Amino acid sequence: MHQNPESKTENLVYGKNPVAELLKSGGVDTLLLADSMAPQQAGYYQALAKKAGAVVKRVPANKLKLMTGTDSHQGVAAWASVVEYVGLDQLLEKARQEGQPPFLVLCDGVEDPHNLGAIIRSALLCGAHGVVIPKRGGAAITPIVMKSSAGAAATLPVARVANIGEAIRKLKEENVFVYCADMDGVSLRKNNLTGPIALVMGGEGSGVSPLVKKLCDGVVALDMAAGVGGVDSFNVSVAAGVIMYEIMSQRKG
Hints:
By secondary structure, the protein is an alpha/beta fold.
């Protein structure tokens, strides 16, 4: 299987749940605990760190504030040892190994790290085999993405490709049916979303680029209530979550 030499990055992740999930995934180099944390709670994280082979350091809460840039660190932070992007082939291989038709999510210009993190979190929970992001023109996996994903970005494989359009062409060669989300598409539940599938979500405001949309096999849309007063679309991470849930439901059905 081809190993993508794409970059590895170190990230500082903070907050109780994201750090716990990251420790459980084994992807932690150093765990930082506030020296004011209650012994029982500190013991829980120390046990997770021991299992993950991570170094534990007790530090003043003020140091955590300075390192994370926020008061909401909850007394715990961790240096993620490796967040490694994989190749598109590896996502397809993961599906094959699990004996399932591929289910991938492609982000075409999603720039807000909170949105990317939320999409990755929903993708993991809805059974996707991986997420694809572009090298340019979109958010990368950063500490904010890691936190927004509640640690899912350390568990679900993420491929970083030079061109989303080329990734779509490759998926179609592998007989993966590619949908994108756009307001002029077919109502979500009128689509057959079973079998090998990839979902493309566009960037905030601009949506899916015209070239990418043209390459897709189908376009899905979310119905909205009438008379909502100036709000004409769902947030991209919310829309992605709704569509992915429907894909999961149909695949299980």
